[in-house]
Design goal:
Helix content is 53%, strand content 0%. The protein has 3 helices and no strands. It folds into 2 domains: 9-43; 53-87, no CATH class. The chain is mainly alpha-helical. The protein is rod-shaped and about 75 Å long.
Length: 88
């Protein structure tokens, strides 16, 4: 397939000089760069979506008593355990 790209003149001149020094064509370098870019994309670790922590629902919140006033770890654990057993 044939493609046309517009790049800055200074960049083109520098690329043309370097490719000539190395005995390569602009086409060869361009194809090589595209292939390298695609390989990197395939190897890249997928980015996890950002979590909106301000609106993130606590996974066990439905097991905490509605009238809970003590939010310490032990009190929360006890409340969750109590409601967990009620649902079982």
């Amino acid at each position: 397939m044939k493609a046309t790209f517009q790049i800055p003149d200074a960049l083109y001149r520098e690329l043309k000089t370097e490719t000539a020094r190395e005995g390569l064509t602009m086409r060869e370098v361009t194809i090589s760069l595209f292939e390298q870019w695609l390989r990197q994309k395939k190897q890249a670790v997928p980015v996890s979506p950002a979590v909106d922590w301000l609106n993130f629902p606590a996974p066990l919140a439905h097991l905490v008593a509605d009238d809970a006033s003590d939010y310490g770890v032990d009190a929360m654990r006890e409340s969750i355990t109590q409601h967990w057993n009620e649902q079982a």
